[in-house]
Design goal:
alpha+beta, six-stranded antiparallel β-sheet, four-stranded antiparallel β-sheet, 13 strands
Length: 338
């Protein structure tokens, strides 16, 4: 079944906006060089791995088979919504390499842009097919490479290990009970240039909502640039949606006035944290990214990092549906065993 092309009517325009997102992702600094050899200006991608690659590396990826690497042209091929969403979830070359090259031996030299085919092929096969540089617990056993066993989709299995558990869990009925998959610590840091709701100032506080849980910070009196540095803890259900955030002005004698709102997509944080498991086993590194777009309130791209054995994400938001105001937060994922 052929997919809708960009010249079709606007009501069927999702692929066009998806392609735009893909090209915006390609323009990110980390994606302007091939994920495998560093060659400039890659125009190809492995849709199921989530990396941008050059023409030479593209040839090696194709030789691995689509069960490991599905290669598409960023500009020429038609992409499905799922393929684009998968690329956006990974966040590009830096995030992918932080997983696929997490255990690259010290002193190991990756092939450069001018590397020969043999050197390039050996590295790419080691990286994706044999998974030699992955965290051991993330490696997929391809049925001992038995000739009698049909080919197993090694890369798809790995992707499912990271991603599909969230999607499958979210589709299960709860039968009146809510099961939790972890804890989310939200540190509300500060507000900047918040809206005036009293005569000359405001008395702001922040309300966080996740599912049926609602938490509130303290009220900061007469301050448009409040500093809270206040930690709030939320349980994360299997069917987690975005974290809802609203800022209000506290009034003594009337209803509190809204001072803006925003949503935080938790999937980049939770997906990355689940993929790495015990963050204490790793040094400081970036493991994921939530990209700024016209569809969210981000001021800049928000990276997910392992810092001192903890998975954290700094988020700066421009408050929505209000004349002005920004909010800075820090998220921390805490598995239930912790």
């Amino acid at each position: 079944m052929s997919r809708t092309m960009n010249h079709r009517p606007m009501e069927l325009g999702r692929p066009a906006s998806g392609k735009r997102k893909l090209k915006d992702l390609l323009l990110q600094k980390d994606n302007r060089a091939c994920a495998d050899c560093g060659a400039a200006d890659p125009k190809w991608a492995s849709a199921n791995i989530g990396v941008f690659i050059c023409l030479k590396c593209c040839g090696v990826h194709r030789s691995l088979g689509t069960h490991i690497s599905k290669v598409l042209s960023v500009t020429l091929d038609e992409w499905s919504d799922d393929e684009i969403d998968a690329m956006m979830e990974v966040g590009g070359n830096s995030s992918a390499n932080s997983i696929y090259e997490a255990f690259l031996p010290e002193g190991y030299s990756k092939p450069g842009p001018d590397a020969g085919h043999e050197e390039r092929s050996k590295f790419i096969r080691s990286k994706y097919e044999l998974q030699e540089f992955l965290k051991p617990s993330l490696r997929i056993n391809s049925a001992n490479k038995s000739q009698e066993t049909p080919k197993i989709s090694v890369q798809t299995s790995f992707s499912r290990k990271i991603m599909d558990s969230f999607r499958s869990n979210s589709s299960k009925p709860e039968d009146g009970m809510v099961e939790f998959i972890g804890l989310l610590k939200v540190k509300v840091l500060k507000g900047t240039n918040l809206a005036i709701r009293d005569m000359m100032t405001s008395d702001p506080y922040v309300i966080l909502t996740l599912g049926r849980q609602t938490l509130q910070t303290t009220v900061v009196k007469s301050n448009l640039n409040p500093v809270w540095n206040e930690e709030l803890m939320l349980s994360v259900p299997q069917r987690y949606g975005p974290l809802q955030l609203r800022v209000f002005d506290h009034d003594m004698f009337s209803a509190d006035d809204i001072m803006g709102e925003a949503e935080i997509d938790l999937q980049p944080l939770i997906t990355s944290a689940m993929a790495f498991g015990d963050a204490g086993m790793f040094g400081d590194m970036q493991i994921g990214k939530w990209l700024k777009s016209s569809d969210n309130a981000l001021i800049d791209d928000s990276t997910v990092n392992i810092v001192d054995g903890k998975v954290k994400q700094a988020v700066s938001l421009k408050l929505q549906n209000v004349e002005c105001g920004e909010l800075d937060l820090e998220l921390e994922w805490m598995p239930l065993e912790q």
